[in-house]
Design goal:
- The protein is of the alpha/beta class.
- The protein has two domains: 12-106 and 210-307, 3-Layer(aba) Sandwich (D-Maltodextrin-Binding Protein, domain 2), CATH 3.40.190.10; 113-206, Periplasmic binding protein-like II (D-Maltodextrin-Binding Protein, domain 2).
- The chain contains twelve helices and 13 strands.
- It has helices at residues 39-45, 48-51, 64-72, 83-91, 142-153, 168-176, 189-193, 220-225, 227-246, 248-259, 263-268, 280-292, and strands at 12-14, 26-32, 55-61, 78-82, 96-107, 113-117, 133-136, 162-165, 182-186, 198-201, 210-219, 274-275, 306-307.
- The strands form two sheets. Strands 1, 2, 3, 4, 5, 11, 12 and 13 form an eight-stranded mixed sheet that branches. The chain has a five-stranded mixed sheet with strand order 8-7-9-6-10, sandwiched between helices.
- Helix 5 links the parallel strand 7 and strand 8.
- Helix 1 (39-45) crosses helix 9 (227-246) and helix 4 (83-91) crosses helix 12 (280-292).
- It is globular and about 60 Å long.
- The two termini are 29 Å apart.
Length: 309
């Protein structure tokens, strides 16, 4: 099988096992590297794509914004990406649709995002973020809206500080060296660094106790032209979600292989269930927060964004 060309330097092609007879054209899928985007990798490694007659070429990439842009640009048929960037593109008129099966959830029962500062920092509460600089992996998206929501809900002024975008792996070092006052980091990176930083909050909880973080997304034109193919893709992702939810040990092994994170850390990382069926209530809290803080021009009903196939 020919390897798909990576969109950006450092992208990795994951070559699926293929059935002896091909029953569909090659399906080009791009996924963000990370625990919350691993469902496509699970489906490839466990053979769920193949079982549903799909020839999937899965490429990984570093950021959700880049994955969404690549989908919009036509480089891929489907993207497994963050729903914040998808919501932003959708409300601005771009014809994107989230498939109704297979997404990663955030749950407050096992927080995955942590707002941290240096041990010597004067930050102790939300009020202390006034005049401070917070490092985030992306601006005007889930990371920023969650931090701002937490600050405002806990007596601070979210507009009193500064937010800067930086590579996720640079945030911890920048906090330790005083380049920024605080930063939002994601597990299992937090587990690696928790002895060097001080935990301030788990800000995703300010949006909802549970909500959708990532999903499989396509364009409306591609969906309309490939309904049968999309139905099989949805079935494969649904089966994958059920498998991952019932096989924590095996899925942890695959996450470690996929992300190159030591298995010991992956096992210590609480993971929320995958959503076999995506419902509007899982997406609405993030949409509402993005609209409240002006990161998207208007609120809209999450059902508009979810394709039923």
């Amino acid at each position: 099988m020919k390897r798909a060309r990576a969109l950006a330097a450092g992208a990795i092609l994951l070559a699926p096992q293929r059935a002896g007879a091909q029953t569909s054209p090659a399906l080009r899928v791009v996924a963000v590297v990370g625990n919350d985007f691993a469902i496509g990798y699970f489906a490839t490694e466990q053979g769920f794509f193949r079982q549903h007659g799909l020839d999937v070429q899965l490429t990984t990439i570093a950021s959700g914004g880049a994955a969404t842009a690549a989908l919009i640009g036509g480089s891929y048929d489907v993207a497994i990406t963050n729903v914040g960037s998808v919501s932003s593109a959708f409300v601005r008129g771009l014809p994107l649709q989230i498939l109704s099966a297979g997404g990663a959830l955030y749950s407050s029962d096992g927080p995955s995002a942590f707002l941290v500062a240096a041990p010597s920092s004067t930050i102790r509460s939300a009020k202390d973020f006034a005049g401070k600089t917070t490092g985030l992996s992306s601006l005007r998206d889930l990371a920023q809206v969650a931090v701002m929501s937490w600050i405002d809900q806990n007596g601070g002024d979210s507009h009193g500080g500064t937010y800067v975008e930086m590579p996720p792996l640079d945030i911890i070092a920048s906090v330790e060296r005083g380049r920024i006052d605080a930063g939002l980091i994601i597990n299992p990176r937090y587990l690696q660094a928790k002895d060097e930083v001080r935990l301030i909050a788990t800000p995703y909880d300010a949006l909802a106790k549970q909500f959708l973080i990532s999903a499989a997304v396509t364009t409306r034109n591609w969906l309309d032209a490939n309904r049968s193919l999309v139905a099989r893709l949805g079935a494969a992702l649904r089966d994958t979600a059920h498998w991952a939810n019932q096989n924590a040990d095996a899925s942890n092994e695959l996450v470690a292989k996929y992300t190159k994170i030591p298995i010991e850390l992956v096992r210590k990382t609480a993971r929320a269930p995958l959503a076999a069926e995506i419902e509007p209530r899982m997406l609405q809290p993030l949409i509402d927060a993005l609209a409240k803080y002006g990161f998207i021009p208007r609120r809209f009903g999450a059902a508009e964004l979810i394709a039923r196939v």
